[in-house]
Amino acid sequence: MEYTHLGRSGLSVSRLVLGTMNFGAETSEEDSHAIMDRAHEHGINFFDTANVYGRKPGEGFTEQILGRWFAQGGGRREKTVLATKVYLPMGEWPNESHLSALNIRRACDASLKRLQTDHIDLYQMHHIDRATPWEEIWEAFNVLRQQGKVLYFGSSNFAGWHIAQAQEAARSRHFLGLVSEQSIYNLMTRWVELEVLPAARAYGLGLIPWYPLHGGVLGGVLRKQREGGAARGNSERSTEALAKHRGTIEAYEKLCADLGEDPAHVGLAWLLAQDGVTGPITGPRTVGQLDGSLRALEIKLDEDTLTRLDELFPAPAPNGIKPAPEAYAW
Q1: pLDDT 10s digits, 108-158
Q2: Sequence-ordered list of residues with C-beta below 8 angstroms from that of 231, at least 6 positions apart, any chain
Q3: Within the chain, where are the H helices?
Q4: Helix (H, G, I), strand (E, B) or coil at 41
Q5: Most CB contacts within 10 A, which of 107, 238, 248, 292?
Q6: Of residues 36, 30, 58, 38, the one with CA closest to residue 48
Q7: H or E segment and range at residue 207
Q8: Which one, of 153, 145, 165, lies nearest residue 11 by Cα?
Q9: Of the candidates 90, 97, 164, which has an alpha carbon nearest to the alpha carbon of residue 132?
Q10: How far is it, in rounded angstroms, from Cα 256 to Cα 150?
Q11: Preceding peptide of 212 cis, ω within 30°
């Protein structure tokens, strides 16, 4: 396994992140535990979850699955860099969502209870809260850190401007601030390259891509359809993407076949090759899917292949592959 520091922090994390969104929803608890055990066998130490993941809203069932796995002992918790999230609704009453000091305190304590642990390694804001001032958010987060309940803080689905706001507010209070940003990022969705990724690099945040294969569209979906196998990519977003970009996906799968590699592994390897990316989140439903994803760490894409991928999936910059403001200024 390869490891890197999470952003500018001293925290060492695996370059593949185990996503747990399927645990309890599509994957049974027994199989979820087996996947986590196998992840540790492979050296994957970075697990990502959220308080809203699970079978139904407000239950926190995925966190409960992780908690029961940690409770088995054997160094499971000690070997894991545990990341969870706060923001989305956990109930219908006021203050059961967003980033008020009250909800942050209650949500953190509830996650700790479900996870059966005394601290969260990385506590992430699942979304920007435009109604709560940064002074309130950072004060609430600092209390959690002083109490030893949280070690590091991260963001998710932030714009570059939001990252700047957060970091400057933290700087004014002499806080470490954010160490990571979790964004949608894959070959088909490269908008973060305009401002989010440059902001993350400038402020020392590690980027953690979610939806790395665009819901299975970049995972060999056409080949699987031809072979009659079950393929992901049934969400509205991925179905529309496949219909709109079928020719591009066909060319992509041919390129991967010429390389002798699975499209899913190439998609992950491309993300791993991007400057500022800590590691993509893989969301295996089976142990076999987890095992297969490790191939991405062994693939080193040459310049010709990277250029071809840029041709197939151009960066969203009118003046070429450049970050903002160069993308739309001179």
Answers
A1: 999 999 999 999 999 999 999 999 999 999 999 999 999 999 999 999 999
A2: 216, 219, 220, 221, 224, 225
A3: 29-41, 61-70, 101-115, 134-146, 160-172, 196-203, 221-227, 236-244, 246-259, 263-272, 287-293, 303-312
A4: helix
A5: 107
A6: 36
A7: strand 206-210
A8: 153
A9: 97
A10: 42
A11: no
Token pair of 134, please?
């940064």
In whole angstroms, give the CA distance from residue 170 to residue 246: 45
Residue 2: burial class (beta carbons within 10 Å; 0-12, 13-18, 19+): exposed
Q: Is the per-residue pLDDT at 316 higher than 90?
A: no
Token pair of 148 as six digits: 């030893």
Provide the 10 A C-beta neighbour count for residue 16.
26
138 is written with which tokens? 């950072």
- Judged by phi (left if over 0) then psi (alpha if -120 to 50, else beta), residue 157 lies in left
Which one, of 57, 68, 46, lies nearest residue 282 by Cα?
46
**Pick the catalytic residue: 53, 123, 152, 185?**
53
- Rounded (10°) angle between helices 61-70 and 29-41: 50
Whole-angstrom CA distances from 169 to 29, 129, 176, 205, 321 are 40, 14, 10, 15, 31
Minimal CA–CA distance to 3: which of 279, 210, 11, 13?
A: 13
Interatomic CA distance for residues 151 and 132, integer angstroms: 22
Gap between the Cα atoms of 135 and 7, Å rounded: 23
CA distance 319 to 195: 15
Q: Express each pLDDT in 63-115 by its tens digit.
A: 999 999 999 999 999 999 999 999 999 999 999 999 999 999 999 999 999 99
Verify whether residue 328 is a known catalytic residue. no
Give backbone dihedrals phi and psi of 121, rounded to 5 degrees, phi first: -75, -40
